[in-house]
Amino acid sequence: MYNRIRKQLNGILKSPEGPRGACSGDDHVPEFEAHRHIRLLTFNIQVGISTSSYRHYVTRSWQHFLPHSKRNQNLDRIATLLRNYDVVALQECDGGSLRSGYINQVQYLAEASGIPYWHQQLNRNLGPLAQHSNGLLSRYRPLDVTEHRLPGLIPGRGAIVARYGVEEDPLVLVMMHLSLSKAAQQRQLAYIQELISRYQHVVLMGDLNNHAEELLTNTPLKHSNLVPLPDTAHSFPSWRPERALDHILVSPSLEIRRSEVVSYAASDHLPIAMDIRLPQGYLETF
């Protein structure tokens, strides 16, 4: 499948009847195993565009609309990084349009990195021009995966919720890409806070377009008791990180063994990684 996708990208571009959100299914995905820790990564991949300067937003802007011969090479670089993690949240993926060579980038990265489960959420469907999507990659079979449309004046933002373990006490991972508008973020995080309020073990991860202090003190997440990365975890822009826009926030029940901004320039954002330990006694529930 991976080789076939590569040939598609390098061959003659043909438009499909209309790509939609999709997933790999779980036929060959291992059950969630009670390992003592889980390696997480969140990465805004900017539809596979490599950006290393502000001027590239102008000189490479055409790559947001048209295919580029080196895009798949950059995706392969990203896939090399993803092999080191158990659960990956992806933002700014293309689900299969002209600019990506009609390749579902979530599927491509899953197969290139050897991660068996993938789920693509299509948030903004511009037909053959663009298929704006979020993605989930996982080495373990989720209990279930649900998609959520986030509120906002301009539609097109979404969240993927994956639950692992058992129905009675799941580990809940929420992957999302928030709007730039502060007003929209308030509405979106109110929705997310209601979604996670009944769970004890929660991870929020993604491009939240805001700093952790603001998110956890001046938005509905202030009621969540989530633990952030250090304030110094700057991820944007990738060539001179000055802003902490990408986050992995976890419940106090989940011990952070290690967290870092990964120095891996393949987008205009740097990826964020975290290794979490499951709660004491949680392993015995499986």
From TrEMBL:
It comes from the Bacteria. InterPro entries: Endo/exonu/phosph_ase_sf, Endo/exonuclease/phosphatase, GPI-anchor_lipid_remodeler. GO terms for biological process: GPI anchor biosynthetic process. Residues 41-269 form the Endonuclease/exonuclease/phosphatase domain. Pfam families: Exo_endo_phos. Keywords: Endonuclease, Hydrolase, Nuclease. GO terms for molecular function: endonuclease activity. SUPFAM superfamilies: DNase I-like. One of its GO terms (cellular component) is membrane. The keyword Nuclease applies. This is Endonuclease. It comes from Marinobacter vulgaris. The lineage of its organism: Bacteria, Pseudomonadati, Pseudomonadota, Gammaproteobacteria, Pseudomonadales.
